[in-house]
Amino acid sequence: MTARMCSQKGFTLIELMIVVAIIGILAAIAIPNFLAYQARAKQSEAKTNLGGIYTSEVGYFGEYNTYTDNFDTLGYQVAGTSGRYNFRVTAGAGGASQNRGIALPAGCAHDAAVAFNVTGFTAGAVGNVDNDPTCDVWTMNDIKTLTNNTNDV
Length: 153
What we know:
Layout: H1 2-6, H2 13-42, H3 44-64, H4 71-74, E1 85-90, E2 97-101, E3 115-117, E4 120-127, E5 136-141, E6 146-150
């Protein structure tokens, strides 16, 4: 009988529980890191579109010697279909503005610096990349300074 028991192969319950615990620990470490990387990847939408707005504004300035707050005049359309950000260039303090992209997320606002004048502009992007109360706010100005005013990651 002892010889028959020695020839049986398999894992004990304790060995299986140790493996499950190790997998749980690895998942607890990996999942939050993955979510942060995913949110940073979503921020590339804001960077890419602000770069496109910059290029359009510089091209417009080269032709008309002024900047504009009108996306239609620029001929600019937001790239991508995900719609995570709201983009804006405003006509000075308290002036008219034009938005592109998604509706402004609840509880979010554009930076006060988002504006334009005949010699410069600042375009802004506001979005919520991880569905928490904090909004991700980016700006880019006429000298191509990209700033993450509020980081949502």
